């Protein structure tokens, strides 16, 4: 079953065309790694899927609900804004810089969305949050503030917070790039466990070992276009372009 798809996404910032018709489709349980050099458009593409950036053209489908974007329609239509909010609620984003609320404890970070946005019972949300913190290995940090956690612990808290919203799919924007090297493994282990559970995940990453061993599909973007796409074993064994070959050689 298709969970999230983006078709022919275009995005321009001023005179710069960042995305030039990029598409992806993720079925339930797919783990898709999105690769590319800095400036290739991969993070912008992920933000367009989550509608944090509004594409200039293209269409997004999330859990069967489809939206066609372009010509400033999102800014003009209240109904369209509501549709975007509804679709965004089916996706959860994990950012490079964690984006935890600094004035809330870790537990409070996890229950904020479920209680205030989804209007779920507070006791139920607390119980689920505690289970998620146990899952990501930081149950003992529930009453700590983000500043008191390491970067790796903050990112695992951010993953737990994303899961607390019960999303259809998880979007990861370079989740390990802000971490010290010794902390990367803890976060990747959590992500591997989520993949093994059958979670649908789209991951912008430079972690080639993750892309190769956990993903079932890899996309390589260059200058706003998909230059290579396919099963990781196939792409890494026989890179289809010289640029992709150089990219993976530089990120071993």
Mean pLDDT: 94
What pattern of helices and strands is seen along the backbone? EEEHEEHHEHHHEHEHEEHH
How far from one another are the termini?
A: 33 Å
Q: How are the strands of the largest sheet arranged?
A: 6-7-8-3-9-10
The total domain count is 1
Stretches with pLDDT under 50, minimum 5 residues = none
Account of the protein in words:
There is one protein chain. The protein is α/β, with parallel strands linked by helices. It has one domain: Rossmann fold (3-Layer(aba) Sandwich). It contains 10 helices and 10 strands. The strands form 2 sheets. Strands 6-7-8-3-9-10 form a 6-stranded mixed β-sheet, with helices on both faces. A 4-stranded antiparallel β-sheet has the order 2-1-4-5, with helices on one face. Helix 4 crosses helix 5, helix 4 packs parallel to helix 6 and helix 5 packs across helix 6. The two termini are 33 Å apart. The relative contact order is 0.16. The mean pLDDT is 94.
Notable traits:
10 helices; four-stranded antiparallel sheet; alpha/beta; Rossmann fold; globular; 252 residues; six-stranded mixed sheet
Question: Would you spell out the secondary-structure blueprint of this structure?
Answer:
Elements: E1 2-13, E2 16-27, E3 31-36, H1 42-49, E4 57-62, E5 65-70, H2 73-76, H3 78-88, E6 91-94, H4 106-116, H5 122-135, H6 151-164, E7 169-173, H7 181-196, E8 201-204, H8 208-213, E9 217-222, E10 225-230, H9 232-237, H10 242-249
Parallel strand pairs: 3-8, 3-9, 6-7, 7-8
Antiparallel strand pairs: 1-2, 1-4, 4-5, 9-10
Helix pairs in contact: 4-5, 4-6, 5-6, 6-7
């Amino acid at each position: 079953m298709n969970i999230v798809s983006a078709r022919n996404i275009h995005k321009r910032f001023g005179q710069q065309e960042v995305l030039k018709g990029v598409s992806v489709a993720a079925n339930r349980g797919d783990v898709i790694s999105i690769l590319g050099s800095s400036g290739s458009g991969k993070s912008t593409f992920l933000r367009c899927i989550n509608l944090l950036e509004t594409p200039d053209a293209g269409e997004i489908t999330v859990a069967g609900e489809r939206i066609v974007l372009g010509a400033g329609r999102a800014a003009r239509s209240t109904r369209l804004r509501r549709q975007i909010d509804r679709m965004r609620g089916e996706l959860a984003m994990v950012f490079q810089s964690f984006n935890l609320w600094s004035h809330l404890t870790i537990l409070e970070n996890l229950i904020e969305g479920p209680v205030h946005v989804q209007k779920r019972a507070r006791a139920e949300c607390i119980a689920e949050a505690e289970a998620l913190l146990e899952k990501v290995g930081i149950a003992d940090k529930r009453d700590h503030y983000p500043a008191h956690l390491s970067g790796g612990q903050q990112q695992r808290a951010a993953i737990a917070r994303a899961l607390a919203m019960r999303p259809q799919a998880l979007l990861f924007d370079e989740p390990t790039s802000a971490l010290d090297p010794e902390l990367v493994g803890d976060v990747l282990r959590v992500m591997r466990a989520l993949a093994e559970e059958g979670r649908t995940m789209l991951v912008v990453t430079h972690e080639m070992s993750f892309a190769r061993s956990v993903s079932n599909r890899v996309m390589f973007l260059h200058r706003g276009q998909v230059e290579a796409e396919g099963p990781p074993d196939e792409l890494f064994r026989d890179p289809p372009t010289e640029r992709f070959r150089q990219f993976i050689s530089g990120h071993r």
